[in-house]
Amino acid sequence: NLDGSAVEEIVSSSAGLNHPLAIALHPATGKIYFTDTGIQYIKRANLDGSNLESLLTFDIGYFPNGVAVDQTNNKLYWARDTIFRADLDTSNSQAIIFGTHLGSLYVDEVNAKLYWRDVTNDKILRGNLDGSNTEDFVTADADYSGGMAADAANSKFYWCDWVGSNIHHVGLDGTNKQNRFSPALVTPEAAAIDADARKIFF
């Protein structure tokens, strides 16, 4: 539950889980998608953990850093050195953004924007959902950025700084950057927003 109660394990090491890094949900189809850096794959399952299936398996040493879902257009994104977009079953995949070390994806469906972390160049970028019109979005406190989330109703974008031990936020226009928490947190790596309840989870 959102208050942290009733915790349940839905996919465990007995099912082959090794080191999950990124998670994305598609509530309309009742699916959870996740990457595993230990075994180099993307899998999906029902929200209760049943019907676990492998979608993509990668070569040893190559693992996807990020995964995101565009529920409006039923598209799946994943990233490492390249950002790919595909149908939810990973068919019809296409490379849309190229780099050297990319990850931490986030889809802002309200504004039809894709955000991602460029580890090599220490910044967060954004572009259209097809990879066009890319632009630098955050160039400070982004070198150790982790999970990202947006509050579109209030035009705010949040990201975790796991070395700086904080969660930062900035306007969707790129202005008014602030640290969200004081005192500092301990290595926050992921974040999600419940816009209706006006809560951020990390």
Give a written overview of the molecule.
With 202 residues, this protein is an all-beta fold. The protein is built from no helices and 18 strands. It has strands at 20-26, 31-36, 41-46, 53-57, 66-70, 75-79, 82-87, 94-98, 102-108, 113-118, 123-128, 135-138, 145-151, 156-161, 166-171, 178-179, 192-194, 199-201. Strands 1-2-3-4 form a 4-stranded antiparallel sheet, with no helix packed on it. A 4-stranded antiparallel sheet has the order 5-6-7-8, with no helix packed on it. Strand 6 (75-79) and strand 7 form a beta hairpin. The radius of gyration is 16 Å and the shape is globular. The relative contact order is 0.10. The model has no long low-confidence stretch (mean pLDDT 82).
The averaged pLDDT comes out at 82
Biggest sheet strand order reads: 1-2-3-4
Count of runs of 4 or more consecutive helical residues: 0
Shape field: globular
Strand content: over 45%
Report the helical percentage: under 10%
Structural class category: mainly beta
H/E order of the elements?
Answer: EEEEEEEEEEEEEEEEEE
Largest sheet, in brief, is: 4 strands, antiparallel
Q: What's the count of strands?
A: 18
Distance between the amino and carboxyl termini: 14 Å
Q: Stretches where pLDDT falls below 50 for ≥5 residues?
A: none
User: What is the radius of gyration computed over CA atoms, rounded to a whole number of angstroms?
Assistant: 16 Å
